[in-house]
Amino acid sequence: MKLCETEFDLSVNSTKRSLLGYFQAGVVDRLESGTLPIRFVITETNKGSYHCELGLLAAQDGESLPDIAQLFEFRQRLVENNDQFNVVLLVPTGIGSSIGGDAGDAAPVARLLASGCDHLITHPNVVNASDINELPDNGLYVEGSVLTRLIMGTVGLQKVRTNRVLVVIDEHEDDYFTDSAINSASAARTSLGLDCSVAKMHPRISMETRYSSAGRATGQVNALENLIQLLEQHRHNFDAIAISSVIQVPGNLQIDYFAEAMTNPWGGVEAMLTHAISSLFEVPSAHSPMMENRKILNWELGVVDPRKAAEAISLTFLHCILKGLHRSPKIITDKTALTQPGVISVEDISCIVVPDGVLGLPTLAALEQGVKVIAVRENRNLMRNDLSELPWASGQFWRVENYWEAAGVMTAIKAGISPKSVRRPLSETTVVERGSMVETVLAAGQSS
Fold first, then answer.
1. What letters, b where the CB count within 10 A reaches 16 and e where it falls short, cover 291-301?
2. What is the C-alpha separation between 414 and 405, in angstroms, rounded?
3. How many other CB atoms sit within 10 Å of the CB of residue 282?
4. pLDDT > 60? residue 447
5. Dist CA 121 CA 352 (whole Å)
6. Cis geometry, peptide bond prior to residue 289 (ω within 30 degrees of 0)
7. Burial class of residue 263, CB neighbours in 10 A (0-12, 13-18, 19+)
């Protein structure tokens, strides 16, 4: 069993079908026998087509595909709960974001936005920084596929006091790296009070990093059944899964990453793996890369870009995911439980904040659900989509220059005022004449 990606173009939607339904149909039409979709993104929109990239779980050698959450399953929310103001912060992995594209460098953004809401729901890429994790106190650490399903309306989140974390590690050829991973787990037990156990994975999975035609980091995972079988053996002994395994990245590419401005090569294939594992087992999961050999330890990287510094000083890159998984919320899939007290569902989501141009299932689901979306220009990335062209309802979409402005717009929405009302010049008032569809613009304060 393997995880892989494919690319295809879809003609621009000229039907009256919703965009979400349109992309679902396009994916289904292109699925080959023995494959299931696990991740979907539109990397570019032009006048004639959408360029799409699709992550797949593929059976091999006569294998049967396991039961897995359906990628495009959607439940329309009928109400919005305004008792709380809950925000989703999304910075997708592997798209070269200028903020959040390296090692936890969007964590200050998370703390900023968290100060203005009841709960900030975000994913590992935002706050993971090797041995550092600065998740806000009111932050909920949610794997990317679970975050997507939350906005799609098919799962809810329930806060927990603690999780039993199973730490799955490669049985490395060099005991030094295996022992270091075990020591990291022991350190988390000591310093976090984490309830965790360690399982060695042998035979191992194989993870390779690759880049798509858009420059987005992706990859391939082979022998996934080895990990699935191990997790099935321990199924009743964990509430969350931390995985530490080797990712094959050419040595020159790793050095180039620290020396140049380029997309992080590890994150894309990590996201593919955790999307599959969380969807299969319905528990939080996260991955950290294990070093391939001791030669890497001897690289003299010098002083690196501050955004990459956390990776330059770490040995196991493991503590950040252990801290995140410690209290990662429980995934609620029973539809009758979504309305229970203490369960956060799509009805409880007030807005989402994304880098401008990012068009995947969370943005499409927000469009369908009527959830407000704030797109941040300054967080430049590889995606080439004009989000303003989507069929938003009035006041649903806000494009801002930076996260300072995003916090301001968020606060205005929370206060129940139009963000435009605090800007000048104030636009004129639009009036529709009685008995006519012709709009007449009258200056604010002028009588009709």
1. bbeeeeeeeee
2. 14
3. 16
4. no
5. 9
6. no
7. buried
Same-domain check for residues 106 and 38: no
Q: For the segment 403-422, what is each residue's pLDDT rounded down to a tens digit?
A: 999 999 999 999 999 999 99
CA distance 95 to 104: 14
Q: What is the CA radius of gyration of the chain?
A: 22
Which token pair is 236? 């009743």
Give 288's contacts (C-beta < 8 A, 6+ positions apart): 128, 130, 242, 243, 244, 316, 317, 318, 320, 321
> Is 70 exceeded by the pLDDT of residue 374?
yes
Q: Could you tell me if 39 and 89 lie in one domain?
A: no
Dihedral sign from CA coordinates of 177, 180, 186, 190 = negative
Residue 198: Cβ-neighbour burial (10 angstroms; 0-12, 13-18, 19+)? middle
Residues 23 and 75 in one domain: no
Whether residues 245 and 378 share a domain: the answer is yes
- Which one of 28, 43, 58 terminates a domain? 58
Q: How many structural domains is the chain composed of? A: 2
Tokens of 382: 């590889």
Q: What's the whole-model pTM score?
A: 0.94
State what percent of residues in the chain have pLDDT above 90: 86
CB 169 within 8 A of CB 179: no
Whether 261 is in a domain gets the answer yes
- In whole angstroms, give the CA distance from residue 74 to residue 368: 10
Distance (Å, whole) CA 439 – CA 422: 25
Whether residue 73 is found in the same domain as residue 11: no
Nearest CA to 329 out of 123, 140, 86, 87 is that of: 140
- CA distances in angstroms from 302 to 258, 306, 309, listed in the order given: 9, 12, 10
Domain around 191 = 61-421
DSSP per residue, 367-423: HHHT-EEEEETTS--S-B--GGGS-PPTTSEEEESSHHHHHHHHHHHHHT--GGGGS
Please give the DSSP secondary-structure letter assigned to residue 212.
-
